[in-house]
Design goal:
Strand order of the largest sheet: 1-4-3-2
Radius of gyration: 15 Å
CATH class of the largest domain: Alpha Beta
Low-confidence stretches: none
CATH topology of the largest domain: 2,3-Dihydroxybiphenyl 1,2-Dioxygenase, domain 1
Number of domains: 2
Helix content: 10-25%
């Protein structure tokens, strides 16, 4: 039924704070922007940030939960070096860098809404 991913859209409390985090701290490149909504093109998919108060045009806020329910992973060439860059920008790495038993190197940090992000090589 589903053959590819179109988009991941994070519903956030503070649009400006999240825009600054993803654009300035993580360096994602803007694709499009509207009122309290922005998306970044990542390969064939979109990664979007939408403020909860404005996202109620899609569905009621009662269906919007707090962050941390999933892990969003970004591939990088060097996990250790990426962690150093992130930490220099004020990002707290809460786990890793570490090598998993299956050989993957990972580290974890959170966005301003508590969503868990992973860098992996």
């Amino acid at each position: 039924m589903f053959k590819k991913l179109y988009a991941i859209c994070l519903l956030v409390e503070n649009y400006e704070r999240s825009l600054a985090f993803y654009k300035d701290t993580l360096g994602l490149e803007l694709n499009s922007q509207d009122t309290k909504y922005v998306d970044f093109k990542l390969g064939d998919s979109l990664f979007a940030v939408f403020e909860k108060g404005t996202a109620t045009t899609m569905f009621p806020r009662s269906h919007m939960t707090t962050g941390g329910g999933c892990v969003i992973a970004f591939p990088v060439t060097d996990v250790g070096k990426t962690c150093c860059v992130l930490e220099s920008k004020g990002v707290k790495i809460f786990e890793g860098p570490k090598r998993m038993p299956w050989g993957q190197e990972v580290a974890y940090f959170k966005d301003p809404d508590g969503n868990i992000l992973e860098v992996t090589a």
